[in-house]
Structures are given as structure tokens and as C-alpha cells.
Specification:
The protein has about 550 residues and is an alpha+beta fold. About 25% of the residues lie in helices and about 30% in strands. The strands form seven sheets. Strands 4, 8, 9, 10, 11, 12, 13, 21 and 24 form a nine-stranded mixed β-sheet that branches. A six-stranded mixed β-sheet has the order 1-26-25-27-28-29, sandwiched between helices. A four-stranded antiparallel β-sheet has the order 16-15-18-17. The longest helix has 22 residues, at about 170-190. Bound molecules: adenosine-5'-triphosphate and magnesium ion (3 copies). One magnesium ion binds near residues 408 and 411.
Length: about 550
């Protein structure tokens, strides 16, 4: 039996006005409807209704993780420095890490993601190939000192993530664990009612080979992706910037990392582009002497090209680079246009496999010289990708590509043996010899998913939750007299008795108009109004999403909802 949540006793204060700093619908509406409250930059309090929605998302994620045999654990968020030093990420993460010291001066961090600690946990617990495969997951608070925490819970500095890790002894085993996660994620987002696409993704700081993202198309998203309307080809436009060391079919020597403190800084770029220095740049694709290449911007700062683009007329942008970078103090040309990522090429099809070029190295102040297509880039995943202009041909089937903005809601990686190598994670194999373990890591932004849902489902009047995540099934509004409140209350109890989750607006001294406005804002899927018709046993049922309303006898309304 569900219980009735009474608004008269719920800590819930809706706001008429948008928060001043809110740029996105989810930010505005989640604050105005009383779901979340900002505590400090990128740090949020989940109020009673918000906590219910978050818990619903978590329940779905947990069910689907359990269904693929995931075992839930809870590792600490407060982590010792050493494992992250061993993996190199204490350095690599740069300013993104929250670092702190204990009273004795020992250094710690607040976990941004947990590959290191999970690897050590399995090393501690599993000794034989018989102990594997294993999938472990947790739902936990993560910490990242994001450069631009904004858009409410879409990008927090403290946020909730489901992260899981698979441990296998064979490559086939890893492929299967990855496949299981991919399918589980599709089911999760399906059940949550999130429109989503699976796209090829950058491996970034994680290293490793195969990686895909789950993107929720939304104008407020910070990712840009290409999508083919005629086949299943889709890729994040970030995908090109991954530099993945792999085999060397070209016969070139190893690529060389360059210290390039003289490459364009945020400030020099900003000067060139005529935008404020507070704009930041991530990976800008440029042309070096006729050849397309990429420029990483020093530091872990990211550029929102969308924002940058707003300030610019379509134009070729010229950047002066250090001699070290290009091998000649030439002009480097790049393209930035008005509609966000107007950089023309993710990769240029004219750059044939085997061509050496210069690229960002996914490390602050570093670029790589003699990067070889097909060796250092996964040609299939990245370099065959062509364009960022709508209508440009899909590399898979030739149809006109579409370009969209989206929110990254999930990310799956085949890490391979990277962390197992770093920490010496072996188990005893069937022949009694040690076998190196291979890993995958998989994340869902559960708090971000709440915001993504709000972005995709809201309308002009407020939030419109899909039933699976809504804070209640039915919002019963007692519109008017005390008698109606009594009837509404009795009805609410009956529905709850039948297992329906009910939010009851039984507030005294609040006008029906305000109650209706709040019900629309809060966004429970069905609104049941106990109003003028009540003395005759008639109530109104309203579908929040479609706006469809009908008057029904009480018994019929109950039968329909219960
Ligand atoms: P983004 O590109 O948005 O910064 P990410 O690629 O850094 O995300 P991952 O390391 O892949 O994130 O983490 C797994 C998931 O955690 C992401 O797919 C996203 O849904 C979520 N996530 C990451 N950063 C944040 C954040 N700052 N606030 C809320 N959710 C986040
Ligand atoms: Mg990030
Ligand atoms: Mg990302
Ligand atoms: Mg990611």
C-alpha cells in the first residue's frame, strides 16, 4: 500500500520566478517546482520531491544492473592519493580533482570515478579465474571541480553516478560484459522514458579501446553529435580527438610527445577570436599548411564552442602557434562558425591512413608529433568520420548527416588491461599460471538523468514526468471548499490503498488557481481535480502531458487509476 503525500505537510515551496542564473529549462523548472536547491556552485540539495525522482531513477538503474548479474557495493568517496598517483591520474586530472589533507598531512581526493579502487578491491578479493567474471557497481556521490558548473544538476561539482566495472580473464569475456552493459543501459533509458542515441565516443583520459556514449538529444546539451537518418551510424564530434596508441601498420616510429607551452592558450585564442577570455577552448580542429589537424588547449579547461560561436561571424580563424608545435611558425587555420561547432571536419577523408600529423595529446601542454592515422587513431572509429556540416555524407552509407546537441547520460568503455597492468591484477588461470585481468568501466549520470528528463519532457507550464520516474502517479487537487478537501482526502486514501502513489494538494488557504498552476509545474502525469462536480460525485481527470481532460464519476476515475 502506498501512502498519501500531503502537500499541507510536505516541505515544498514553489517559486513563481526563474532563478536569475538559470540558463536551461531543467535548471529553471527543477528549482521553481521545489525539487532541488542550490547550496553552492555546482552543489545541490535534493528536496523531498526531487529525492523521490532521483530514487526512482536509481531504482531502475539498480534493477537493470542486478539483472545482468551486477553486484552492488559501496566504496568510499574519500580516497587516498597513492593509487591515483600510481595510475598517473593524480596528475592527469589536474584542476578537476578535489584534493584535501587529513590532520597528519596525508593527501586525499574526493573520487571523480573509481577505476583504481575497484581494481585494488578485486585484486584483494579474487585470486582464481574461477572468481571471474565479475561485475561490480555502486551508486555514489562523485566529485569533479568542473570549470563551468552550470545548468543546475546537469553539470554538478558533486553529483550522483552509477559506476560499474567488469573483470574478465579473456577479451571475449570483456566483449560480453560490455555487450551486457550496452543492453542494460538501453533498457534503463527506455524505462526512464529518455530519448537517446548510442554514439561512438572518445576514450579520453580513460585510455583503452572501444567506447560508446549514450546521448539524450536536447538543445541544452553540451555535446554535439552526428547522426545518420538512414543507417545506424552516429558519433560524438569529440571522437576525433582521442589519441589511442595501437599497432603500427605504417612502419612509422612511435609518435613523439612535445611540450608545447607555446600553443594557443585560452587567452591568445580569445584575443584572436575576439571573445572574452572567460570562454574556454577544448579541441579545435585546424588546418596546418593545408592539412587538417587538431589543437588541444593547454590545461583541462574546456571550450564551449557553442558559446564561442555565438560571438562570431562564420570565418576562418587564424591562430599563431609556437615553432615547436608545427615545426614552422606558420599560421594555423581553423574554422569556427555561428552555430556552435562549425569546425568543418571531425577528420578529413583526404588524410590518408599512414599520414603523419600533429595533434593534441589529451594532456595539458602537450602535443604529439608524427601521429599516424591508422596507428595512433582508430581509423574506423575516428578518421572515416567526416563532417560537422548538416547534410554532409554519412561515412557509412552516404546519406545526409544530421547534427544535434545532446546530453551525455551514460558512457561505456572497454578499458582492457590498462589498470590491471598498473596494479598487477592477475588471477590464477586454469593451468595454474597467472592471467592478467581485462576490465571495462561503465557510468550513468543518475542525477544528470533527472535533468535530462526534465529537458526532454517539459512544456511551457512546467515539468511533465514519465510515470516511471514521477514523484507520484496521481496529483489529487482539492479545489475549494472544506467538503471537497475531505472528499479529495478520502479518494486519495482509497487510491493509495490500491497501490497508487498519490500527491494530495490539501493546502488550506491556497486558491484553486494556484493549486492548478503548481500541479502543472510539478508535473505528476495525472491530475485529478476534486472541484465543483464533487457534490454530484464527479471529478476531473487531466493528463498532464497531452492536456486531455474529462469529467468522470468518482468510481470510474478510481477504477481507471487503481
Ligand atoms: P562530460 O563530458 O559531460 O563532462 P564525462 O565524459 O566527463 O561527462 P564520464 O567520466 O564519462 O563523464 O562519467 C560518466 C557519466 O557521469 C557521464 O556520462 C555523465 O552522465 C555523468 N557525469 C559526468 N560529469 C558529470 C557532472 N559534472 N555532473 C553530473 N553528471 C556528470
Ligand atoms: Mg567531464
Ligand atoms: Mg564526455
Ligand atoms: Mg564520458
Amino acid at each position: 500500500m502506498a501512502h498519501v503525500q500531503r502537500m499541507s505537510t510536505t516541505m515544498l515551496r514553489t517559486l513563481r520566478d526563474d532563478p536569475a542564473d538559470a540558463e536551461t529549462a531543467s535548471h529553471r523548472l527543477l528549482v521553481r517546482a521545489g525539487y532541488v536547491r542550490r547550496t553552492s556552485a555546482g552543489v545541490w540539495t535534493w528536496l523531498p520531491l526531487g529525492k523521490k525522482v532521483l530514487d526512482n531513477v536509481i531504482r531502475v538503474v539498480r534493477e537493470e544492473m542486478d539483472a545482468i548479474g551486477g553486484q552492488e557495493v559501496l566504496l568510499p568517496a574519500l580516497l587516498p592519493k597513492e593509487p591515483y598517483e600510481t595510475s598517473g591520474r593524480w596528475e592527469e586530472y589536474g584542476d578537476l580533482l578535489f584534493r584535501l589533507r587529513d590532520r597528519k598531512g596525508a593527501e586525499y581526493l574526493l573520487g571523480p570515478t573509481h577505476e583504481e579502487i575497484f581494481t585494488l578491491t578485486v585484486k584483494d578479493q579474487c585470486t582464481s579465474y574461477k572468481d571471474l567474471p565479475v561485475i561490480l557497481y555502486q551508486i555514489q556521490t562523485k566529485y569533479r571541480d568542473e570549470a563551468r558548473p552550470r545548468s543546475g544538476v546537469l553539470r554538478g561539482r558533486e553529483f550522483q553516478m552509477k559506476d560499474s566495472y567488469s573483470f574478465d580473464t579473456t577479451d571475449e569475456g570483456l566483449a560480453e560484459s560490455y555487450r551486457l552493459h550496452r543492453a542494460a543501459y538501453a533498457r534503463v533509458f527506455e524505462r526512464l522514458g529518455l530519448d537517446h542515441r548510442v554514439v561512438s565516443a572518445v576514450s579520453g583520459a580513460m585510455g583503452g579501446s572501444r567506447s560508446e556514449e549514450f546521448l539524450a538529444p536536447a538543445a541544452a546539451g553540451e555535446d554535439t553529435f552526428v547522426d545518420c537518418p538512414s543507417c545506424d551510424y552516429a558519433a560524438n564530434t569529440e571522437a576525433v580527438t582521442a589519441v589511442v596508441a595501437s599497432s603500427d601498420p605504417s612502419g612509422h616510429g612511435p609518435m613523439e610527445e612535445l611540450d608545447t607551452p607555446g600553443t594557443p592558450t585560452i587567452e591568445s585564442l580569445a584575443r584572436h577570436l575576439g571573445v572574452p577570455a572567460s570562454a574556454t577552448l577544448k579541441n579545435l580542429l585546424v588546418k596546418v599548411d593545408g592539412e587538417i589537424t587538431a589543437v588541444g588547449v593547454p590545461g583541462d579547461r574546456e571550450v564551449d564552442l557553442g558559446k564561442l560561436g555565438e560571438h562570431l561571424a562564420p570565418a576562418v580563424v587564424e591562430l599563431v602557434t609556437a615553432e615547436d608545435f608545427t615545426g614552422r611558425p606558420d599560421l594555423v587555420r581553423g574554422y569556427v562558425g555561428p552555430q556552435g561547432l562549425k569546425i568543418r571536419y571531425i577528420a578529413d577523408p583526404r588524410v590518408a591512413p599512414g599520414t603523419a600529423w600533429v595533434t593534441g595529446a589529451n594532456k595539458p601542454d602537450t602535443h604529439a608529433r608524427d601521429v599516424v592515422c591508422g596507428r595512433d587513431f582508430e581509423v574506423d572509429d575516428y578518421l572515416d568520420v567526416v563532417v560537422v556540416e548538416p547534410g554532409d555524407p554519412c561515412p557509412a552509407c552516404g546519406a545526409g548527416l544530421e547534427i544535434g546537441r545532446a546530453i551525455e547520460i551514460g558512457h561505456i568503455f572497454q578499458l582492457g588491461r590498462k589498470y590491471a597492468d598498473v596494479f598487477g591484477l592477475d588471477v590464477l588461470g586454469p593451468q595454474g599460471k597467472p592471467v592478467r585481468v581485462t576490465m571495462g568501466s561503465y557510468g550513468i549520470g543518475v542525477s544528470r538523468a533527472v535533468a535530462a528528463l526534465a529537458e526532454q519532457t517539459h512544456d511551457g507550464a512546467g515539468l511533465c514526468w514519465p510515470r516511471e520516474v514521477a514523484p507520484a502517479d496521481v496529483h489529487v487537487v482539492a479545489a475549494g471548499k472544506a467538503a471537497q478537501t475531505e472528499l479529495a482526502s478520502a479518494l486519495a486514501e482509497r487510491l493509495a490503498g490500491a497501490g497508487v502513489r498519490v500527491l494530495l494538494d490539501d493546502r488550506a488557504g491556497v486558491s484553486p488557481g494556484v493549486k492548478f498552476t503548481d500541479a502543472e509545474l510539478i508535473g505528476v502525469p495525472t491530475i485529478l481535480v476534486v472541484g465543483r462536480g464533487a457534490p454530484d460525485g464527479v471529478v476531473e481527470l487531466k493528463d498532464r502531458r497531452t492536456g486531455h481532460r474529462e469529467d468522470l464519476p468518482v468510481e470510474e476515475a478510481v477504477a481507471r487509476l487503481a
